[in-house]
Design goal:
- By secondary structure, this protein is α+β, with helices and mostly antiparallel strands.
- Helix content is 37%, strand content 27%.
- It has two domains: 159 residues, 3-Layer(aba) Sandwich (Molybdenum Cofactor Biosythetic Enzyme, Chain A); 83 residues, Alpha-Beta Plaits.
- A six-stranded mixed sheet has the order 2-1-3-8-7-6, sandwiched between helices. It has a five-stranded antiparallel sheet with strand order 12-9-11-10-13. Strands 4-5 form a two-stranded antiparallel ribbon.
- The model has no long low-confidence stretch (mean pLDDT 93).
Amino acid sequence: MTNTKPVTACVLVIGDEVLSGRTKDANINFLAAELTKLGIRLAECRVIPDVEAVIVDAVNHCRAKYTYVFTTGGIGSTHDDITAKSVAAAFGLGFGLHPVAERLLLKHYGDKANTSRMRMAMTPDGAALIDNPVSIAPGFRVENVFVMAGVPAIARAMFDGIKSSLLGGTVQTVRTVSTIGISEGMIGEDLRALQDVHSGVDIGSYPFLKFGGFGTNLVVRGEDPAQVDAACADIKAMIVAAGGEPIEGETEGEELN
């Protein structure tokens, strides 16, 4: 489904292990790319600890501000997996065994369905389940908040199952013009002026190192392809005027920001 109004999202990565550096997050990049394909602008990402008050505050703030909120992490079987209970608290809902999730886990684990494992069947009252084809234990949705696992393979499978239900917006046109030998400092003021002229698009500048020298990828995003093309044409002229050679598309290198 598509929508003419801007559609926004926030991702909340929940887990002390991410904040400590023990675990590298891989879900933000995946979700950003997938949401962009749907015309949903990822407007904010947060990494927060396994602390109920912090989770409650973040969920309540973000669900009021954005069209969608996606959380990853903290819905496993151990004592520090408190995301589900915290989301229930954020909505002021009761918290207990979801009958469908309970049946799924009992069937999957059989006589190995111990207390810890059955904690993964607990959701806020009235939550809608998110299918988990990888390891069975489901995620869930309450209103505009989607609660998913932190394990990347499971988070991706969960998102694949829900993305068709999301109300998307206008998919942006994205084009990149790059150049080698022209640094941001050489074109910074000209680029600022171009952004003012082409206010209907967003122009991003991403410097890199290649062959021991500086280069710049200039990325133009906008809903109107004609405006994107016009901005790219002026960027190419700016690069030529600075003594460089414009290159269609992105140039790979070691990004500096």
